[in-house]
Amino acid sequence: MKQVVPFLHVSSMERSVHYYVDGLGFAMKHKWVVEGKLRWCWLALGGAAVMLQEFPKEGHDSRVLNGKVGEGVSLCFECEDALAIYDAVKSRGIEAGEPQVGNSMWVTGLSDPDGYRLFFESVTDTPEETKLSEVRS
């Protein structure tokens, strides 16, 4: 194996691409366009990647899911500096949970427009359960 890339079914490509590219800083590496409409893309940030696809609601290749598409799915991105990711996404207007130390890692969590939970984590020697506001006061 070389890599695993989560393939996320999204309800709106436009909204999701805006969130991941403009909000989180991912770059579009590959895309599939049909009749001028973006149908699928591969986005990357450093060594991490996700694939997004909005499926038709009816006809060929249609998929209709029950409930919210991202419910129950979490992705953990191991990174060099979760606090820098937190600062960057907050500066772009993205809601993110206050970083806190858990399992010897700074962790910040957020939800994409479809409810997929995204966690950015980086190793630290800061004591467990320390919140960012406690060290940046």
What does this structure look like?
- The structure is a single chain.
- The protein has 137 residues and is an alpha/beta fold.
- It has a single domain (7-56, 70-135), classed as 2,3-Dihydroxybiphenyl 1,2-Dioxygenase, domain 1, CATH 3.10.180.10.
- 18% of the residues lie in helices and 35% in strands.
- It has three helices and eight strands.
- The chain has helices at 13-23, 82-91, 132-135; strands at 7-9, 27-34, 37-45, 48-53, 74-78, 100-102, 105-111, 117-123.
- The strands form two sheets. A four-stranded mixed β-sheet has the order 1-4-3-2, covered by helices on one side.
- A hairpin with a 2-residue loop joins strand 6 (100-102) and strand 7 (105-111).
- The longest helix is centred in the N-terminal third of the chain and has 11 residues, at 13-23.
- The protein is elongated, with a radius of gyration of 16 Å.
- The chain starts with 6 loop residues before the first strand and ends with a helix.
- The mean pLDDT is 92.
Keywords, separated by commas or semicolons:
2,3-Dihydroxybiphenyl 1,2-Dioxygenase, domain 1; 137 residues; single chain; alpha/beta; four-stranded mixed beta sheet
Low-pLDDT stretches are none
Shape: elongated
**Topology pattern, helix = H, strand = E:** EHEEEEHEEEH
Tally of helical runs: 3
As a percent range, the share of helical residues equals 10-25%
User: What does the main sheet amount to?
Assistant: 4 strands, mixed
Structural class: alpha/beta
Biggest sheet strand line-up: 1-4-3-2
Q: What's the Cα radius of gyration? A: 16 Å
Highest CATH level, the class: Alpha Beta
